[in-house]
Design goal:
With 183 residues, the protein is an all-alpha fold. Helix content is 76%, strand content 0%.
């Protein structure tokens, strides 16, 4: 029962952490391309009429709405895996490492998305209804890549953290042990 309570609290904590990440990430993204939000995200989330009055707050709300569910999925997956741990100390250690690994994957993927967005062939992209300068279009596309790459990074992190316990490192003398067990 104690283990279950800890896992519920930790899952909720992961949801809160991913929501905070979403808020911060969207504030940085808004600084790069306000148009990404006003022309894409605000309409997508239904903030067409009143989102433009408080764009930073609206971007923060969208950050929560677009990340909390991923935090719930991550929290549930990692919590289920941590049920196999023996005590609360190893559960906490596992979840801390899993969360840090996930953050590193997502952060690194976001940087890769930024770099890819800046060097991509934005000029080739068909300008459908985008009114703005070429630089605004480039920033718009860059923020799109950042967000897409971050979701990809989260998926890779989940796979890595989930499969890592099943990937045993071979020891340096594993061949010798196998040879010795043969005789």
């Amino acid at each position: 029962m104690k283990k279950t309570a800890i896992l519920v609290i930790l899952t909720i904590s992961i949801v809160v952490l991913t929501s905070i990440f979403g808020v911060i990430n969207n504030q940085i993204s808004y600084s790069i391309s306000p148009e990404f939000f006003t022309k894409s995200m605000f309409p997508r989330f239904g903030f067409v009429e009143y989102g433009l009055d408080t764009p930073r707050l609206t971007a923060a709300i969208i950050g929560i709405w677009s990340t909390w569910w991923l935090g719930l999925i991550i929290g549930l997956i990692y919590s289920i895996i941590s049920l196999s741990k023996n005590n609360t100390k190893t559960i906490f250690s596992y979840l801390t490492n899993a969360i840090l690994t996930t953050f590193i994957f997502v952060f690194a993927s976001g940087i890769l998305g930024f770099i890819f967005g800046k060097i991509s062939l934005t000029n080739v992209i068909i300008n459908r209804g985008f009114s703005g300068s070429q630089e605004q279009l480039k920033n718009f596309v860059t923020v799109g890549y950042i967000h897409d790459f971050e979701y990809g990074g989260a998926i890779l992190a989940i796979l890595f953290v989930t499969l890592k316990p099943f990937l045993k490192r071979p020891s340096h003398n594993s061949g010798f042990k196998q040879l010795r067990s043969f005789f």
